[in-house]
Amino acid sequence: MKLVTIAGLSTYFFTLALAAAPSPTPSPTPTPSQAPSASPTPAIQSREEGDRLFRNRNNEASARKALEIYKANYQAKPKDNENVWRYSVALYHMGFKVEKDDKKKREYFTEGKKITEEAIQNDANCAACHFWHAIHSALEANESSSVNLLVNINYVRRFAIRSTELDPTCTKAGGYRLLGQVEIGLPGILGGSNRRAKEYFEKAIAAVPQEPMNYWELAKHLDKNMDKPEEAIEVAKKGAVLAKPEAHDYESLEAWNQLQDFLKDKKVSLSNTPKPSPSPSVSAKTS
Hints:
Elements: H1 3-6, H2 42-54, H3 60-76, H4 81-98, H5 102-122, H6 127-144, H7 146-166, H8 174-185, H9 194-207, H10 212-224, H11 229-240, H12 250-265
Helix pairs in contact: 2-3, 3-4, 4-5, 4-6, 5-6, 6-7, 7-8, 8-9, 9-10, 10-11, 10-12, 11-12
């Protein structure tokens, strides 16, 4: 079983690419019942400061400070899904990208699994909560053993699928990328399917056509796992002509660069390659 691939969502997972840790973006317009008072509360102000710090998460000190802020906000308002997914993302980043000690890594993933499970109990329609619950569940199991991950893979699938049902654009279609990676990681005898993986990556592109990670996952899969280099090149060309992601959007930028390198290795020109159609509205809980 290709555990590195499964963890590769956030590219990760996400990488578990996600597909990847998301760069928090401003919260979507709240519903009337959730609307804040005219004066911003300290929690909202510090949450924005957490977002600023997390955008610089490749700096460990910034990542740890963002985690502190997100944790404090979560503890103050644990039923606020904006606090839940931000804290969950920061836990993922610390456990998967920063922490070296296996015991501490698992503690981060266990905490992420716990808070997202509680969030789902409070709000069964939170797509980001389902997605990050799938991620933390997989990573926590993987820290125990590959057998434990295998035993829990259908549990992970269930929450990833539910995330895509609630919001296909959540985490820039991260649910579909995760499901594709699961199909690749499982041997055929245990239910894995290259065909289904391809279909999931295609759904990711359809949901969020402006995200380089979606094209890279499909192109890579076609080239390495399905022996379809010509199809892989066509997919890569579509992703490579997208606008270059901003520097703080590490995972998307990495995928964009990989698409460029892939085409250079194949000696393919991007001239006359049309750009994909504009993206639909994407959930703020992006990776």
